[in-house]
Amino acid sequence: MKSNASDAMIKNNSWKKKGKYIQKNWQLYIIFMLPAFLLTVIFKYLPMGGVLLAFKDYSAMKGIIGSEWVGGKYFQRFLSSPDFMNYLLNTLKVSLYGLAWGFPVPIILALLLNRIKRTGMKKKIQLIVYAPNFISVIVLCGMVRIFLSPVGPLNNLLGTSYNFMTMPSAFRSIYIASGIWQGAGWASIMYTAALANASKELTEAAVIDGANVFQQIKNVDLPAIKSIIVIQFILQAGNAMSVGFEKAYALQTDMNIEASEILATYVYKLGLLNGDYGFSTAVGLFNSIINIVLLIIVNKVVAKINDGQGL
Amino acid sequence: MKTRTFNQLSFSDRTLLGIGYILLAIFVGIIIVPLVYVVVASFMDPTVLQNEGISFDFSTWTLTAYERVMTNKMIWVGFSNSIIYSMSYTFISVLVTIMAAYPMSKKDFVGKGFFNIIFIITMFFGGGLIPTYLLISDLQLVNTPWAVILPGAFSVWNMILARTYFQSIPEELREASSMDGASELVHFVNVLLPVCKPIIAVLALYQFVGMWNSYFDAMIYLNDSKMQPLQLVLRSILIQNTPETGMISDIQSTAELAKLAELLKYSTIVVSSLPLLIMYPFFQKYFDSGIMIGSVKG
């Protein structure tokens, strides 16, 4: 009895303390946190309530709440549709092949950059390889279309006249290669920075010990960036389902749709162009649930491999 | 100790490094060649470009394409819209984000756990396209700049970056301000902001580039052509192959038209990409430090 009472008192006290803290530091709540909090509630949490649409037959007159329930009808519909399976596979293929081809490039690039001893030279190269990151998706895809056009430079070079943009079989290669061209330099920054910070003394020690370049990379450089590699891998693999809309849509043509229709573009066309709100929301919801499951699985797997260190 | 020069290395090391440098040179080449190609092509006569390909024969260079692009009204409308949207988005976003990051960086901040969970959830789960679209239209934001500015203004990821940065600032600073009787707000504006320039620069660059280069939100929320940002104007020229009519209205033959449309693409790319490509080197000194913060904390 007695200990219960004192527990309650401590709890009371700590509530009082917290109340006092809030009172004293009201500015932190009203000025500092409130804008971010409001934006989050309005633009992130209100739409989350909107996922109810996935189970309703939406009518603009009745609103989301008033519309009639249809249960799992939409889920049944798309899970049994071969088209949907195609788009799901397209999404996964783009991101997993992209990961397989694209993930090592910035790491290799950073390891190479780290071997350049002249700072001025290194800075210049960095400046160049970062540049594509600042080009917009539209311009990138515009360039891709110019270079790959039947009369474009690539065909001139090969002496052919393929229309790459209309070939479903070419879509993924185009998507992934242009992604590496644009993003690899920028993605290498954090590896480069980690290498520059961590390995100077260790490398010198290794050099004194007579380690050759290969051994230096294996024993000094790679361990220095290992944790970043792990984090980046989790993030990218976990995001396998959220392939961005913008680039896929800008590289899409009527002819390559077989490979280029991914879930994001499908949801857009279905929902906003065809007005099929419920169905489109159901597909979107399904997409983000798979995404979360993926993230959890990848995190677990990596944690197991990486001595219990996940995200 | 001085590092050994290239010639002092063993043969196998030299070979390995040599291969490495060649790889690096190839990579740099792959980045540069398309960029140079676009710039050179933008100055060329369309007929010469079509028939003979790229050439560095300056005597045939013309500024025709640039004249047509620069005198086009839609490009300029797009430019000014993009500048307005990107600047306001950057200002609002960075302000809201670092304001929230400051309390979150304090060890004793009551409610930290609560806010943390509220924010982190939104990184992994969202309502999706249609619910967000319905909300924006219910709020009457369609066809207003707010539709592209507000929804993404608070970035949790950027908040984490800024919070990590704040945590690296010694707490004695706050104690000193308290002794002077400064409120949190006064302390934040007068003491903290000046020492946070690197992280502010990085976040501002992220947000500005992000808004400048995106088109999806504008495509679905801004239907009025006078409100379109640059990227949507570019989209009709580069992706949909429909140059703005003002650019080509005086050309009669279809063949001429097709050639000119191609040429206009190059100059449009150059004109639209130049501002950011000129701007980012000035931020380079902040890249490493700013991005490191993110990678360490994850």
Any overview of this molecule?
Chain A has about 300 residues and is mainly alpha-helical. Chain A has two domains: about 55 residues, no CATH class; about 230 residues, MetI-like (MetI-like fold, Orthogonal Bundle). The model of chain A has no long low-confidence stretch (mean pLDDT about 85). In chain A, α7 packs antiparallel against α10 and α10 packs across α12. Helix content of chain A is about 75%, strand content about 0%. Chain A has a two-stranded antiparallel sheet with strand order 1-2. By secondary structure, chain B is mostly helical. Chain B folds into two domains: about 60 residues; about 230 residues, MetI-like fold, CATH 1.10.3720. Chain B has 16 helices and no strands. In chain B, α1 packs across α15 and α8 packs across α16. Chain B is globular and about 75 Å long. The two termini of chain B are about 35 Å apart. The relative contact order of chain B is 0.13. At the A-B interface, α1, α2, α6, α7 and α8 of A face α1, α4, α5, α6 and α10 of B.
